[in-house]
Write a structure and sequence with these properties.
mainly alpha; 3 helices; about 75% helix; about 0% strand; sodium:proton antiporter activity
Length: about 120
């Protein structure tokens, strides 16, 4: 059930560029997971790559199926909404767990909490 030949050439090029761009953004985020030095930098790169890549891929999908069905497609909007809401929440939970672990182990690379250090009496 391949309907891609029914797409106009301009739409096929735009869909291809959006999907390819989204895949490249997701790949850059995955490479950040491998290349960045600390957990905090790694988790930031992957969430940005996943969100930006997902946005571009879903825009390409929306364009493709809106043209083929001659009506807007709502499924992609719901997918984008759920991924956009859950990705930052997951980032916050992972970062807080890592900060708690690092502070309890008194690790030197823990980000500061912005408060001045307490003086021992």
């Amino acid at each position: 059930m391949m309907q891609a030949p029914d797409l106009p050439t301009w739409a096929a090029i735009m869909v291809g560029l959006l999907v390819l761009g989204g895949a490249i953004l997701t790949l850059v985020g995955a490479l950040g997971l491998l290349r960045l030095p600390s957990f905090y930098a790694r988790v930031h790169a992957t969430t940005l790559g996943a969100t930006a890549g997902m946005t571009a891929i879903l825009l390409g999908s929306m364009l493709c199926f809106s043209i083929l069905q001659t009506r807007p497609v709502i499924h992609e909007i719901l997918i984008a909404l759920f991924v956009t809401l859950t990705t930052p929440v997951t980032l916050i939970l992972l970062a807080r767990a890592a900060i708690y672990r690092d502070r309890s182990e008194k690790a030197p690379q823990v980000p500061s909490d912005g408060r001045p250090p307490r003086r021992e009496k």
